[in-house]
Amino acid sequence: MELNGARILLECLKREGVDVLFGYPGGAVIDIYDELPRHDIRHVLVRHEQAAVHAADGFARASGKVGVCLVTSGPGATNTVTGIATAYADSIPMVVLTGQVPTPLIGNDAFQEVDIVGITRPCTKHNYLVKDVRDLARVLRQAFYLARSGRPGPVLVDLPKDVMQAKTEFAWPEDVKLRSYNPTYRPNLNQLRRAVEALIEAKRPLFFAGGGVVMSDASEELGWLARTLSIPVTSTLMGLGAFPGDDPLWLGMIGMHGTYAGNKAVNNADCIVAVGARFDDRVTGRLSAFASGARIIHIDIDPTSIRKNVQVDIPVVGDCRKALAGIREIATTRLAEKDWATAHEPWLAQVSAWRTEQPLTYVKNGSIKPQQVVETIFSITRGDAIVTTEVGQNQMWTAQFFTFRKPRTLLTSGGLGTMGYGFPAAIGAQFAFPDKLVIDMAGDGSIQMNIQELATAVCNKLPIKIVILNNGYLGMVRQWQELFYQRNYCATCMEAQPDFVKLAEAYGAEGYRITEAGELESTLRAAFASPHTAVIDVRVEREENVYPMVPAGAALDEMLLV
Amino acid sequence: MRHVLSVLVENEPGVLSRVAGLFSGRGFNIESLNVAPTLEEGVSLMTISTSGEEQIIEQIVKQLRKLVTVIKVVDFEGIAAVEREMMMVKVQADDARRAEVLRIADIFRCKVVDVSLNDLTLEATGDHGKIQAILSLLARFGIKEIARTGTVAMRRSMQPETA
Lengths: 562, 163
Ligand SMILES: Cc1ncc(C[n+]2csc(CCOP(=O)(O)OP(=O)(O)O)c2C)c(N)n1
Ligand SMILES: [Mg+2]
What we know:
The structure holds two protein chains of two kinds.
Chain A: E1 2-4, H1 5-15, E2 20-23, H2 30-35, E3 42-45, H3 49-63, E4 67-71, H4 75-78, H5 81-89, E5 94-100, H6 116-119, E6 126-129, H7 136-148, E7 154-160, H8 161-165, E8 167-169, H9 189-201, E9 205-209, H10 211-215, H11 219-228, E10 233-235, E11 250-253, H12 260-268, E12 271-275, H13 281-284, E13 295-300, E14 314-317, H14 320-333, H15 340-357, H16 370-381, E15 386-389, H17 393-401, E16 410-411, H18 422-432, E17 438-443, H19 454-459, E18 465-470, H20 475-484, H21 500-506, E19 510-514, H22 520-529, E20 534-539
Parallel strand pairs in A: 2-3, 2-4, 4-5, 5-7, 6-7, 9-10, 9-12, 10-11, 12-13, 13-14, 15-16, 15-17, 17-18, 18-20, 19-20
Antiparallel strand pairs in A: 1-8
Chain B: E1 2-10, H1 15-25, E2 32-37, E3 43-51, H2 54-66, E4 70-75, E5 81-92, H3 95-107, E6 111-115, E7 119-126, H4 128-138, E8 143-148, E9 152-155
Antiparallel strand pairs in B: 1-3, 1-4, 2-3, 5-7, 5-8, 5-9, 6-7
Bound molecules: thiamine diphosphate and magnesium ion (MG).
Magnesium ion binds near residues 443, 444, 445 and 471 of chain A.
């Protein structure tokens, strides 16, 4: 039987296991929307296309599945760009479906025409313009395959209106053939042997976990190796949750706002096993001083990540989980060659001395400290929540003071640092886990970048909690101005803030305000117990800073401390 | 260091901009770029001449391989290869100078492809070095115009024994 493009699209989505679609309609996709009600796919109408992409992204990060969103041509498509770039920077599997003007009009500056394939070329893993309905099923199959395989990432498929209307015989391609795309999953055995050799020789080894550990579900392997071989663990922001934050071997995140112990450990280790991390400048500090005394073993599925920024002694290209499992297998046969615990004892004593010397801390003074809000939320929830963040100080305090113990419990825009990410991502995460507590740790600036999604949350009865660490500033920028620009607070004071409580109520959500430290716990508990979308406006100390801080261009161990 | 890369690609719309965009977006150099179909339908060969430190070249090769439409990348560095480019060059050559220009053309086995009262157009092929040499020798006569292809290259069938 011949089906039209819109129907084929939905048949393909169903076969790819898609049951929720975040989207926003328009003329170019109206045929798809016409078809949608006849299919068992839930469509979530957002209030801005950027939010559709972040929601699909949050859904993907929380569940490990491919997130999908659908928007119209022109402005609908351009509104997705920030969301796509966000997902690309953090390697999130996603398929973005954009409407396009009918094929005969392409190139004519038609109404609501943009070259979205051209625009998103540098921020997608791959993208397609479907010009013939007979290609549609194959392209969609490839798009999903590309999004989730190898190093995952967003794939965009541009769908001209006439292609959605045209009919053809529908055949679901059972498998995907792409001779030009063959990710390396299985690591080279020799390299793994060399890695184990290096670990046997090491006196001060360190694991350094990135988002790849979360993405490839490698936490268990990492945990086994760390504990069996007595090796302490640090991570990037994206790697938080990959290793339990309450484990004695955990040193905290490293980088610009990393822990003292973590940053010291990196620059004093003699062997670093970097797993699924790409040595972003926020993580390495001044490159010339980074881990200068260490042999570096770098495991990554993307060969371009290796030796891009940091010289590597033992490169291992492959899936992180497979690589760690391989190291485990080899290490198991060689455990007797070293008394691991004893051999690493002085090193473990050293790192724990750093940890007690300079723990993450803040000065308590009776006013509400943002760090204290995060700690209180951790203790109320006992960590059993999915936490998203906005960007800025709120993000760093969440990373520092919430003890993440499981992968996929922190959803944050690491690579791009997109303000406005957290709330729509929380919506996506709540759809992936309807029964979990989902909290967006927000800043007063960031939350206003996608606050319109309160309507989406209320309309879909999502019990998401938005905790605004309200300092009345674009706090992270203000902190830089304070520390490096002689307190020239230009354009960082958020004057004329809305009344967040009334705003929440206007959308039909609940609004809470906390102005006294004494109310913190009880009000948060009440808000978390409520079955409704809630905004909690917490008036925190306005000029609190995030410490430790490695100034841009400084070495990791040149930290400013509290 | 100058490197010549041969890049086999699926000939899909946009493939050229994917490759060109990769170079511009990441600040890599393109000295020349040549694209043409191969014997296999739907597959094109790009020959890119680029330069940079070893680590940059390594990134360029890896980044090219990462593009979904790229089938194969070969860096000719360390491989015995035949390398050619073609140039047409229009040189001032009045009666007094013509003989000398023709002598140089002869030495480099250039063809004369166009003549007028005041100039000669030569067609030259050779590797990058030869083309540069012709240009510098002709410079003193006054070069009016040049048109060059990019480099193309092919692996030699016989490779020297590697130690
Ligand atoms: C879309 C976007 N615009 C600008 C920035 C630059 N920026 C980084 S942090 C920050 C301040 C964020 O303010 P707020 O959300 O109130 O968080 P706070 O730092 O105060 O916790 C800004 C403007 C950004 N990261 N993203
Ligand atoms: Mg703020």
